Fold:
Amino acid sequence: METRNLAGMYGLPTLGWQDVVDRLGAGITQVPGTGGPDRHTFWLATIDADGRPHVTGIGAVWHDGAFWFETGRRTRKGVNLARDARCSLTVALREFDLVVEGHAELVTDPDTVAELARRWAADWPCEVDESGIALTAPFSAPSAGPPPWHVYRIAATAATALQTVEPGGATRWTF
Structure:
């Protein structure tokens, strides 16, 4: 991993990647009233066929050293990812704003899909569908499209964090 201090010219320290990982591991809730300003929102950026960016709010979870999300394969983001898996995910936490760049990998391992379903089920009544590799539920976010919803893992290639508390700082990691 390469670490680059983006705020060294201001005399600010480099942020530690392990500190970021530890904070993510402590959990990020999207329940209203639990984050800033009212909750934490993840934003996923994908690339449209004409090269324009497409950005949409999504539900995501940090698990096993990566971000995971779900969506229908016919949604705009699902179609974009099938054509070009490059993407970025952002979230603003109290301690730092984070951008993770990488590739969204479609997950087809039934055990992994089941594990993620268990994690999401704490806040959303989803379950693995009859295919064993996708999710279903009585409802989802309108941007997810109709079921089935497929699980994606972001294989990170780089990340940037801007510390929002003292002493401040900005760091970029390339993996």
